[in-house]
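Section 5.1 Outputs to date
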Amino acid sequence: MTISTIQIKEETKKTLQSMKLHPRETYEEVIERMIEDLSELNEETREEIEEAGKEVESGKFVTHQQLKKDLDL
């Protein structure tokens, strides 16, 4: 196994820290889990996520607040 040092922002490190399942879990294990989870998404799901992101970027969404107002809740 080759070990490399990488540079990451402090914010990224904090995010990885918060994603640990247990205190002794390494960042390598956290990253491997993320990669595995990502690779399990099928193509259809990826396309749906991409489409949803485009809709949000273009303003095609309704906030919870707006929905409550529209439904008189």
